[in-house]
Amino acid sequence: MPSPTERGQASVELLAGLPALLLSALIGFQLLLAGYTLTLADGAAEAGAAAGVAGLDVTEAAREALPGWARDRASIEVTGGRVRIELRPPAPLTSIAERLSVTSVAWARPDRAAP
What we know:
It contains four helices and three strands. It has helices at residues 9-53, 58-64, 68-71, 94-99, and strands spanning 74-79, 82-87, 102-107. A three-stranded antiparallel sheet has the order 1-2-3, with helices on one face.
């Protein structure tokens, strides 16, 4: 049987460790969101490059390839056959989102040999 001074020690240890556990979970979730955002940027850059080859509006195609929440967070740059997407992931603070922004580039060159 635990002595009177040891009673409640597990509860105190749990309360002391809980903030660290929650912080670790939040950091992990934020990194997961950053990875997901990179996947979205890759897809949008590819969609924009494919639209350029088809003679469509590259910027519009890249923006349409993104989900609604990401469209306002994206910066799209088109230079020749190069499509560059910079996308900020969702984050509780704007400064965190800016530091975790991801960039994806896709290149496309239309086939000049085709009639």
